[in-house]
Amino acid sequence: MSKPPPRRKKTTRVASGKPKPATDSAKKKPSRQDEPASVTIDVSAVEVPELTPEEERDRLNLERRVERAFYEAGKALMELRDRRLYRSTHKTFEEYCRDRFGHSRQQSNYLIAAANVYENLTTNGCQNVGDGNLTTNGSQILPSSERQVRPMVQLKPEQQCVVWQQAVEQAGGKIPSGRIVKDIVDQIRERTKIPNPYHLGEICVLVPKDNPDLRGKAGYWGAIAHVGDYSCTVQCWDGDYTVKIEHLKSLELLEEDCQFMQQLCLRLRQLHSLAGRDEAVDWLLQGLGKQAKPYLSSLQAKLLTAVEREYKIEWKRQK
């Protein structure tokens, strides 16, 4: 007997619990009740009260103090230096400035020089303006930072006034930046012969910039031995260098400090002239030749004296 063909199982679809997507026609348009309610917020204007006459005076006084901050600092540092009011705690003004104020003597010198320029501008009334163009100090447009006057430090008082007036005009009647002042000083140097600001015996640092003859000499200090129209000859520990004034930076030392460094330079030059000297001598010379400070530490002084004794060099301080 032949077997009957197997029966096929019937498959039935199971209705899922998910609702069928509604057709476009079945979609309902949102009613007004479904839309979020719009809220109207009333903002009242806050009236800023004008400054009272007393507040105006206070603001003017505070602005003046901010503007004059670098000037007051420079004048105070000048008195501390000139009267040597640091002598009870420190041997040198440089050490005092570093420990007390956290900056170098050079920074102090910048502030002192800037204070002199500021005082000149205010004394001579170099930039008076009309009532319609008053600045915060009420009558003059004056510097508000040391960097704005640094390029004018080496100029004569009357030249400082001219430069500052031109800088204010170029800045549109506002306080000019240091770059604007420097550009005007450079232009004046090109047009007119500004006297060489350096003098014999002054201690300066070499600034190589783009001068190939000074390559590797950055930081070398020396004493001015000759002053020309636009250049100077500087005596350093390893020789003489004749450079333009833009390749020099004065340390602005007191006369007694300059004399100390002049004597030190002669001592270093004498050691440098020794033939067959030990390499350790060159290390000492290079170290002291780049240390632009008007003093030696106790150890440095002992080392220098020991080397001089080793080579039988008797050195007596010259007057």
Automatic annotation (TrEMBL):
Basic residues bias: start-end ranges: 1-12
Keywords assigned by UniProt, alphabetized: Plasmid
Biased composition, class Basic and acidic residues, residue ranges: 25-35
Region (Disordered): 1-44
Name of this chain's protein: Uncharacterized protein
The species this protein was found in: Halotia branconii CENA392
